[in-house]
Design goal:
Strand order of the largest sheet: 3-2-1-5-10
Shape: elongated
Number of helices: 13
Structural class: alpha/beta
Number of strands: 19
Distance between the termini: 104 Å
Helix content: 25-40%
Largest sheet: 5 strands, mixed
Low-confidence stretches: 101-118, 135-141, 190-198, 237-259
Mean pLDDT: 78
Radius of gyration: 47 Å
Length: 537
């Protein structure tokens, strides 16, 4: 099963859908929005494009599923922002417009900016923000600052929702910057997206030139973007083949010869120098993708190899340069991305490698999950209601039984003790009457233990002149003694005498013999036994 990537091209600051391309390893189809009628909401174009995608995916073995949706860079920007503003969309917008979105910038809507409009769409919640270059993305982020992508998402949301309605599942969403970083990243031979990115992973720059439209570039480590940018270009436009980044009617000093590489190299050098000040390093390798001019070819729309080399040398003099000559750089990027997804299905699980807000946008599966959860909650509520109703019925029966018991109690009181029939606490009154009739409870004092008689009995045994009596303790609860005997035979005679002595009321519990120099130390304990007939006398 070959991976499929859908590239959507937008206009009007990323608000309207104009073109959709479905690219695979060996396929490339396109759908263009009709120009006859103007659809201000873009809903109709999104639905038609989604239906076209669904029709193309019907014969796919994997079913109606898009591996990735890739957004163009119309209205998008990448900028450094303070880390404190990274979590606040309102602050992000203000910071980016202040630092990187001044009026007159040659972005995808420079005409509007020139009239005093802001960089981004006017309505709130039309932008999506994605932090890149975080820990794990491979970037050395400056302390207190972070790189953030700001992308208009209105058209993309409508398109993804229309795909969902058409039964097409979207696995993830990326920008062209993220697609470039992964598509042309060096192969490491490992498909694990969870491997640790070393701090010395090379910083790779990818530059994509669409003649007559835009130059886009991205810096990446291990396929994850850490910085990006883009600007308009007139390379290859009609009548302006050598007028890159010049205003209408302007002519570069010294003629047009060398203007292309000078303007492009100067713009890249300026932007890259600003980003390198944050990272502390320049890319060690540059990959250029775009068409190259050929001698004698009047239809070429690209730059000559010497111009490309000169421009890139101005931006990064020490970097290794790879040039890929292709008339359709975006198509090649999407094809490379599809091949990379075939080889590494988890490639876009790297931090910052996709747009989280669009990739995690709820669809039919989420709505079905919510519906089932709601049904389960309704069933649980019905069950709880049934149990509550059963408890309510039991409560009614218990109350009826209680009333019956109280009625019986009142009838008994009226028959046996009429004076207590109206008392709120008749049980307490009855107990008081019973206690008064019974009188005070008799107090029984147990007889004292025959301590002296037991002491005389024990003295007959422990007074043996061969024993060394150390202590004897007789109380009303227990008896204990400590005595030393000369050997084991004497110890056995002592135990036998105490166990069989007549007239003793002591039940011996233990005799603990321990060697004590040349003698045996015996610690005996016992308790009082009940006297015959229950008397202690």
């Amino acid at each position: 099963m070959s991976a499929r990537v859908c590239y959507i091209q937008r206009e009007d600051r990323g608000a309207l859908l104009s073109r959709v391309r479905l690219v695979g390893r060996s396929t490339d189809d396109a759908w263009d929005a009709p120009r006859g009628e103007f659809d201000p909401t873009g809903t109709g174009d999104a639905a038609n494009a989604a239906a076209w995608i669904a029709e193309r995916l019907d014969s796919r073995l994997g079913g109606r599923s898009l591996d990735r949706v890739c957004l163009d860079l119309d209205g998008a920007v990448c900028s450094w922002v303070p880390a404190s503003a990274a979590a606040e969309p309102g602050m992000l917008r203000a910071v980016i417009e202040r630092d990187g979105g001044a009026a007159g910038d040659d972005d995808g809507f420079g005409e509007a900016a020139g009239e005093g409009a802001g960089r981004f769409p006017d309505l709130p919640n039309e932008l999506g923000y994605q932090t890149i270059g975080e820990n794990g993305g491979g970037a050395v982020v400056a302390e207190g600052r972070a790189a953030v992508l700001a992308v208009p998402e209105v058209a993309a949301r409508r398109f993804i929702d229309a795909l969902d309605e058409a039964g097409v599942q979207v696995e993830g969403c990326v920008t062209l910057w993220q697609a470039m970083a992964l598509a042309f990243a060096p192969r490491t031979g490992s498909s694990s997206a969870d491997r640790v990115v070393a701090e010395n992973s090379p910083l790779i720059a990818t530059v994509l030139c669409v003649p007559g439209e835009r130059v886009a570039w991205s810096w990446s480590r291990d396929g994850a973007p850490v910085a990006a940018g883009s600007f308009r270009t007139r390379i290859g436009s009609a009548g302006a083949a050598n007028a890159l980044l010049l205003e209408d009617g302007q002519t570069p000093p010294g003629g047009v010869e060398g203007a292309v590489e000078s303007a492009l190299g100067g713009r890249l050098a300026a932007e890259w120098l600003a980003w390198a000040a944050q990272f502390g390093s320049f890319p060690s390798r540059i990959t250029w993708i775009g068409p190259m001019a050929r001698d004698g070819d009047a239809s070429d729309t690209g730059m000559a190899p010497a111009q490309i080399a000169s421009a890139l040398r101005r931006a990064a003099p020490e970097a290794t340069v790879d040039v890929i000559d292709d008339a359709d750089p975006i198509g090649l990027t999407m094809q490379r991305l599809a091949e990379r997804l075939d080889d590494e299905p988890r490639a876009l699980e790297r931090p910052g490698a996709r747009l989280s807000s669009l990739s995690n946008r709820p669809g039919r599966v989420h709505r079905a999950m919510y519906h089932w959860i709601a049904i389960l909650l309704l069933v649980a509520s019905a069950a709880i209601g049934a149990v509550a109703f059963e408890f309510w019925q039991q409560r009614g029966a218990a109350q009826a039984r209680l009333l019956e018991v109280r009625a019986n109690q009142r009838a008994l009181l009226e028959a046996g003790a009429p004076e207590l029939a109206g008392d709120p606490y008749p049980t307490m009154k009855l107990r008081e009457l019973l206690d008064a009739q019974r009188g005070p409870a008799p107090v029984t004092i147990p007889a004292p233990k025959p301590v002296l008689r037991e002491l005389e009995t024990l003295a007959l045994v422990l007074g043996n002149p061969e024993y060394e009596l150390e202590s004897i303790d007789i109380s009303g609860f227990a008896v204990s003694f400590v005595v030393k005997v000369k050997d084991t035979r004497a110890y056995e005679d002592l135990v036998d005498a105490l166990s069989n002595i007549g007239g003793s009321r002591i039940e011996w519990n233990s005799f603990n013999p321990r060697p004590d120099r040349e003698r045996i130390r015996v610690n005996g304990t016992g308790t009082w036994a009940d006297a015959p007939g229950g008397s202690d006398s």
